[in-house]
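User: I'm putting together notes for a lab meeting next week and I want to include a structural view of one of the chains we've been expressing. I don't have a solved structure, so I'd like a prediction I can at least talk through. The sequence is below, exactly as it appears in our construct file.
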Amino acid sequence: MEPTPENMQHLSGFLGQTLSPDPATRKGAEAQLTAAKVQPGYAPLLLKMILQDGFPAEIRLQAAIQFKNLINQHWTASETHDYCMSDGDKASIKSEIVGAMLTAPEKLQPFLSEALGTMSNADFPLDQKWPELMPQLMQHMDSSDPNVVQATLRTTQAITRKYRNASHTDELWNEINMVLTLSHDRLLNTHKNCLSAMAANAANKQVLDTIFSTLELVARVFYDLNYQDIPAAFDDNLDVWMEGFRQLICLPDAVKALFPTSGDDDKLSIMHAMQRSVCEALLLYADKYIVIVDDTDNRSARVDERPVFQKHLGTFVEAVWGLLTHLGVQPQLDKLAVSAIRFLSSVLKGTHYSFFQPAHLESIVANVVVPGLRIRESDEEDFEDNPLEYMQRDLEGGASDTRRGVTCSLVNAMCSHFEEAATQLCNKQMDALMGLYAANGTDWQSKDTALYLFIALATKAETKARGVLSTNPHVNLIDFFQRHVLADLQTVTAANVSKNPILMADLLKFVLTFRNQLPKEAYGVVFPILNILLSSPDCIVHTYAACCVERMLTVKDGTVPRVTKADIQPMLQPLLTNLFGCFEHEASKENPHIMKCVMRLVTAAEGDAAPAAPMLVSKLTSILSDLCKGFQHGIAPKNPAFHHFIFESLAAVIKCVCAGGDQHAVATMEATMIPPFQMVIEQDVTEFQPYFVQIVAQLLERRAQPVPEVYFTILPMLLQQPLWAAKSNQPALTRLVRAYVERGGAQVVANQGLFHQILGLVQTLMMAKMTDHYAFSILSSIICHVLPAK
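Assistant: Thanks for the context. Below is the predicted structure for the 790-residue chain, given as structure tokens.
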């Protein structure tokens, strides 16, 4: 495909049609582009179009996306893609990609950068397929045009970012040193020149924008090249690098005033983005290079430690602490705050914590911790408008990258070596916050902050599954619970269940977090309150209440559950009623936490759940029916975990109802479960097939002989090859076929057609190593149950 004007116009037309609102036009254009990708010259033609100013911006953007995808998928041969780009096209692209990165519009450079990263991962420096890449690139680092320098740095980072995730090998280390031989001096000169220019243009925001953009890219490349180990080039010039980083963290007030943080702008300013990259580089050094082990003398039994970053550590503790002290709480500053707080946490947890003085700790608690934990307007908006996102951050461990999450980690880090002092400082702040709430009941934000501060302070060790395992011995957890948590929970009634939902969610989170530490007497008081809160119309409140119930049912004192069957029995029906009521709220229609609580209740109640079984089965199958109808209309599943816990709940109901071998109960469950199972198989609802197969197997295993004929009407469908082709179906189908053989062996043999189908299936499974164990499992059941019967 030659780069003629006619070909470029044709290609431009197809790229434009991919943006058409008409599905037929869009699909036709996509088909044409898919067919064109195998033609020689197609990829170079896309690259030329990206650089042509004569085409509209949206066409060039589509060309960049197509080019990036083409390189990612077809630069190297793979099992998933049947086409590999020709050597001629590769050579043409290699000769032009660096120049393209330097001249393409900034909005298109990320796509070219990703493509170049894919190319370099495959060809540089492996077998020296692209030896000219770095020399060709580095000659542009000395350019007097800052735009060229920035484009060069972006291209360099596209090559070096792979070092962050690669395994350390001699080949990789040789590659890094080769890159450094060509790039380090130029990087350092760019770094120093930018610092000098910054001092000379401290009042010129336009110039500073360019300088900070360049310095941010330099810091990123610095991070990449130091990630595996500290190279000698950086070690020898570390004082120069670190002095520059110190200047960038401790910018003059006049410079900072040029980059104000607007509450309406959610984008991080270039100055703050640059400081974030510097803080990430400092964090890397704090984690890995405070001191390094010198093991060059293998004959010596003595391990020598050589200080590297240690002499700079005190300077940067002061600098980063000062940065955080004056940093605003606007959401757009969160990424910078997260990186800076992680640096302080790393030093506090390490062996060089002595750089922190009491004055540091007091200032950190007052000026970093408390503001970092305080709820913001954006958090309140998420609570109301994006409850699932809020819960993912707050409840499911997704807060590790948020300011509030890393602030909690900072409190934990302070307690690593300054537990008593940190506790006293935090208690002082908590008392002040609680005093504000007590003086003015509307200042719930202060109590919200105090609750989060206590949770962070009191928690020493925890796991997601088991909760908090050990607590800070300097805090009185039970006293705090009784005065500040239980007292508020006991005011909850059906009439005021909607009052102050955010604070209520905080109280529930406290109960959930410290469920192991609360005495059994507290459980008896809390459970009725949780039942009331399940009726809250607020998605987060009733979800947190359900999580409390579910997790508290798993707590054991030794081997004995803290909440016994006798404790559950009087609450079971009201709890189930309110839990299913939660599904009537739009935000909780597919809430996995609610369904998990249903499953846990049924499992914990065991046989006591039998009276509620008809209601449970009716509700659960009704939900499944609605989901199946949605699949028929092309509505994709929102939450697979929700589906999983529906079937877990059904399995728990079957276990408790049919445990005694009551055949009437089994028949009742069969009448309810087999018709939807047939529908799922016939309509090929692949998401539900493995679950339904296990449910039917569970019923069949509890069936007395003879097996009802309804089971044999569905058996031919279960032996179809497409159903067995899905790996997710194979374990459940194997279990079900075994149940057929074991419970109805004589009936299977009597139907020779079915029996031969089963033997044919065994033969097919035996032919592959991945499935032969399923074949032997079925065969062993035939030998044990069918042949003796015959």
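A couple of points you could mention at the meeting. Residues 82 and 221 are 35 Å apart (CA to CA). The two ends are 70 Å apart (CA to CA).

User: Perfect, that's what I needed.
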